[in-house]
C-alpha cells in the first residue's frame, strides 16, 4: 500500500517537474522571439534590436503607444510618456486618440524641466491648431514659464529632415479620426550612372572642378502605420511602406474573440489582414504592436504560430512589453 502511494507521489513530482520545464521553455521562447532577456516577462522597459535599430517603449491598444528609436532621437506616438521618451526630441504623432497623444504635455514639460531643446511634434495637418491649444492650456495651468515646442504639420508629398539626417514622409491611413503613418529614410550617395567606369583620378578631377559626381537616394528604413484598418493594404501605392527594412504595424486583434469584420468596423488590423496580404510585405522584419490588452503574451504567441504561414511568421516579431 505504502509502496504504491510512494510510486504515485513520485509520478506527481515527475509530472510537476515536466510542467515546470515546459513553462521555462515557453518563457525562453517568448523572450527569444521578442528579443527580451533577463527581464520579467511583462517588463515595460525591454529593448528590441531589429534592422539596425534599438526599439524601446510600450504599445498596448487603448492604453498607450510610444515607441522609441534612440538612434534617430525619435519617438513614434506619445500615448503616455515613458521616461526614455523625454530624451527624444522629435515625436511623430499618428492621430488624436489619447492612447497615442495623451503624454504630449508631459513630454514638453519634462524636456523644459531638464533643460533640453524644445521638442518637435510632427502631426497630421488637421491637428496643428488643436495640439497648440492643448499645450497652451497646459502651460497656463502649470503657471510656470511658457512651454516651448515646435509643431510641424506634415501632409503627404512633403518631407522633413531630422537632426540625425534622416528624412520623414507620411502616408494616409484608415481610422475613424484623421490619421497618418510615417516612413523614415536614410540618405545614400551613389556615383552618377554616366560616371560609372571612369577612373578614380578622373572622378576626383571632376569633383575638384566643382561638378556633382553623385546622386542621392532615399532608402526607406522604418515604416510605422499607427492605428489603421486593414483597408490600408487594399489601397494602391504606399510602395515604400512595403519595402522599408522594418515595418512597424498595428495588429490589435489576433483571434476570433474579435472577428475580422469587427476589427474592420473599429478601424483596426486583424491578424487575418496580415495573412491575406502577406505577399506584399517585402520588409526584412515586421514588428507587431498595439495588441489588445484582452490577450496574454502566450495567447499572442500561440495565435501567431497558429494563423501565420511560416514565411510571414519568420519575419514577424511581436512587441510584448507590458503584456503579462
Ligand atoms: Zn490606439
Ligand atoms: Zn486610434
From TrEMBL:
Q: Which domain of life is it from?
A: Eukaryota
InterPro entries in the cross-refs: Metallo-B-lactamas, RibonucZ/Hydroxyglut_hydro
**Ranges for the Metallo-beta-lactamase domain?**
89-291
Family annotation (Gene3D superfamilies): Ribonuclease Z/Hydroxyacylglutathione hydrolase-like (3.60.15.10)
Pfam short name (any one): Lactamase_B_2
What residue intervals traverse the membrane?
none
Entry protein name: Metallo-beta-lactamase domain-containing protein
Specify the species: Tetradesmus obliquus (Green alga)
Amino acid at each position: 500500500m505504502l509502496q504504491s502511494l510512494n510510486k504515485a507521489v513520485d509520478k506527481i513530482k515527475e509530472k510537476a517537474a515536466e510542467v515546470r520545464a515546459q513553462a521555462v521553455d515557453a518563457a525562453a521562447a517568448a523572450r527569444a522571439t521578442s528579443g527580451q532577456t533577463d527581464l520579467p516577462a511583462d517588463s515595460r522597459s525591454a529593448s528590441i534590436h531589429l534592422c539596425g535599430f534599438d526599439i524601446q517603449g510600450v504599445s498596448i491598444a487603448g492604453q498607450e503607444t510610444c515607441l522609441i528609436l534612440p538612434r534617430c532621437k525619435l519617438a513614434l506616438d506619445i500615448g503616455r510618456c515613458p521616461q526614455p521618451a523625454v530624451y527624444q526630441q522629435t515625436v511623430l504623432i499618428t492621430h488624436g486618440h489619447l492612447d497615442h497623444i495623451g503624454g504630449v504635455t508631459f513630454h514638453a514639460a519634462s524636456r523644459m524641466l531638464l533643460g533640453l531643446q524644445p521638442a518637435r511634434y510632427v502631426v497630421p495637418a488637421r491637428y496643428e491648431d488643436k495640439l497648440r491649444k492643448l499645450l497652451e492650456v497646459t502651460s497656463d495651468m502649470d503657471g510656470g514659464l511658457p512651454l516651448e515646442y515646435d509643431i510641424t504639420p506634415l501632409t503627404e508629398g512633403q518631407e522633413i529632415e531630422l537632426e540625425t539626417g534622416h528624412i520623414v514622409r507620411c502616408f494616409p491611413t484608415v481610422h475613424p479620426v484623421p490619421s497618418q503613418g510615417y516612413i523614415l529614410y536614410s540618405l545614400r550617395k551613389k556615383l552618377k550612372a554616366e560616371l560609372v567606369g571612369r577612373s578614380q583620378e578622373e572622378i576626383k578631377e571632376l569633383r575638384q572642378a566643382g561638378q556633382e559626381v553623385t546622386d542621392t537616394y532615399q532608402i526607406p528604413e522604418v515604416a510605422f502605420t499607427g492605428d489603421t484598418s486593414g483597408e490600408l493594404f487594399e489601397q494602391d501605392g504606399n510602395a515604400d511602406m512595403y519595402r522599408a527594412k522594418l515595418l512597424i504595424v498595428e495588429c490589435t486583434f489576433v483571434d476570433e474573440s474579435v472577428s475580422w469584420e469587427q476589427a474592420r468596423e473599429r478601424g483596426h488590423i486583424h491578424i487575418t489582414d496580415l495573412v491575406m496580404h502577406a505577399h506584399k510585405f517585402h520588409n526584412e522584419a515586421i514588428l507587431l504592436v498595439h495588441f489588445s490588452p484582452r490577450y496574454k503574451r502566450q495567447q499572442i504567441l500561440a495565435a501567431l504560430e497558429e494563423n501565420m504561414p511560416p514565411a510571414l511568421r519568420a519575419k514577424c516579431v511581436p512587441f510584448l512589453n507590458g503584456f503579462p
